[in-house]
Design a protein that fits this description.
It comes from Parapedobacter composti. With 348 residues, the protein is an alpha/beta fold. It contains 13 helices and twelve strands. It is globular and about 65 Å long.
């Protein structure tokens, strides 16, 4: 882009914020076309049910207020746009999971090349198209691509295997490369039924496919798993989703054939295991002794953890959130603990 064309299409920081505020208003209104999108998403990807897509859209809209965006961006020198491009390789495990990277890069004044996951391409394209209708000057700044080319820096999210691929291809550019992470919950045995119910949202939202979903419980010695099961009974309908049920049935059969100790309430399996990343429809369980031992264990696991769900703060490096809050990240809840705006500010 030549300098004159770049200057003609420039957006001020306030105009960028205003565009995203308007996008938030649009998502909250949920007009007919958005309703149609929600229904279409489930046909494109059976994991993206209408309730889950609406949950993701509502979570995004909640953060797109003028006050929240202004407070979030206030510390950064993003008043002027920059003629540089960020390549974004997005994940697709949860609806619109890559939107935060899009928001960061555009608010920081960059252009973006977006390679969406095939699982989430429909929703990603819709939101980008909606943003460009709201603010047409973004059209010159946004490109949906099959392959990144001519970018200046990159943010890529995927599995541990794909991270090795990303590092090989993008290692010579400034980059953020994210790998697998999981989230865990710490119980004391004193949780109320309501708290256990709220924890159910951390487990079952998006079928447990997100890195912020709880995949393992840490419980004290003598903990009665029936208390947890009683609190999550409201989520039993999840077993009616055929893909989830297939995973539940498969894992249950494996545990029965192998004679593995496990607990089963008819829609969730809980298995004692030291690992963090549990299979779908399964939670791993680990017993802790004293609090110091728990703190040391969680500190050692920090590189594998996205967040920890607990009733109170813990002296650990991983962010701690309350029961029911793991899938409600704020603007400054950065994936893998890497501040995306700091990274973008350093490479303007």
């Amino acid at each position: 882009m030549c300098n004159s064309e770049f200057k003609h299409n420039i957006l001020t920081k306030k105009q960028r914020i205003n565009a995203f505020v308007a996008l938030g208003d649009y998502l909250r209104a949920e007009d007919g076309s958005l309703h149609g999108l929600v229904l279409s998403a489930a046909h494109h990807n059976p994991w993206f049910t209408a309730p889950n897509v609406r949950k993701a859209l509502n979570s995004i809209a909640l953060n797109l207020s003028e006050s929240k965006l202004n407070e979030w961006l206030a510390p950064y020198p993003f008043d002027m746009e920059i003629d540089r491009t960020v390549g974004l390789v997005l994940a697709g495990n949860v609806p619109l999971v890559g939107f935060h990277d899009i928001l960061c890069a555009l608010c920081a004044g960059f252009s973006i090349q977006v390679k969406p996951s095939a699982n989430d391409a429909l929703l990603t394209k819709y939101l980008l198209d909606s943003l460009q209708l709201i603010e047409p000057r973004f059209t010159k700044k946004i490109a949906l691509v099959e392959q990144l080319k001519g970018f200046d820096l990159v943010i890529a999210t995927g599995s541990d295997n794909s991270a090795r691929y990303f590092t090989y291809y993008f290692g010579n550019k400034p980059h953020i490369i994210r790998k697998n992470r999981n989230s865990i919950a710490v119980l004391t045995g004193n949780e109320s039924k309501e708290e256990c119910h709220n924890l159910g949202a951390d487990v079952f939202d998006y079928f447990g496919l997100g890195c912020r979903n709880v995949s393992k419980l840490f419980v004290p010695e003598g903990y009665e798993i029936s208390a947890f099961f009683e609190g999550i009974t409201a989520f039993s309908d999840i077993i009616n989703h055929y893909k989830y049920a297939n995973n539940y049935d498969y894992n249950k059969s494996i545990y029965l054939i192998n004679g593995d100790t496990h607990y089963d309430n008819g829609f969730l399996l809980v298995k004692p295991d030291e690992r963090i990343a549990s299979p779908l429809a399964t939670l791993y369980l680990e017993v802790y002794g004293d609090r110091d031992g728990l703190t040391n264990r969680l500190t050692a696991l920090a590189p594998q953890l996205q967040c920890v769900v607990a009733a109170e703060e813990l002296p650990i490096p991983t962010p701690v959130v309350g029961f029911g809050d793991s899938q409600q990240p704020a603007l400054n809840d950065y994936a893998d603990g890497v501040n995306t705006l700091d990274f973008l500010a350093q490479h303007r």
